[in-house]
Specification:
The chain is an all-alpha fold. The protein has one domain: Arc Repressor Mutant, subunit A, CATH 1.10.10. Helix 1 runs parallel beside helix 3 and helix 2 crosses helix 3. The longest helix is centred in the middle third of the chain and has 23 residues. It is flat, with a radius of gyration of 15 Å. It starts with a helix and ends in a 6-residue tail after the last helix. The structure holds zinc ion (ZN).
């Protein structure tokens, strides 16, 4: 069983598909049981997706969108609007 810190360290590898089958299975098992890590991986996936799109398009508008998403993540749920 992986620890949360190990999942966080390997999250970007999981998203990039660079983990072996066993490691991927261990990650999936942990994510199935740990809501914190599941949310972390989902947020990271969204962030990497946006970053890749921004890089492909070379668009500053999307770059600004990414920083908006990141600052929203940092403020966390339940923060005043
Ligand atoms: Zn965890």
């Amino acid at each position: 069983m992986l620890r949360c810190r190990e999942v966080a360290e390997r999250a970007s590898l999981l998203i990039d598909g660079e983990l072996g089958p066993l490691q991927r299975l261990n990650m999936r098992l942990h994510l199935a049981m740990c809501r914190g890590c599941k949310a972390f991986v989902e947020q990271l996936r969204i962030t990497q997706d946006l970053t890749k799109k921004a890089a492909e398009l070379g668009s500053e508008d999307i770059g600004e969108g990414v920083s908006a998403v990141l600052s929203r993540m940092r403020s966390g749920p339940g923060s005043p609007r």
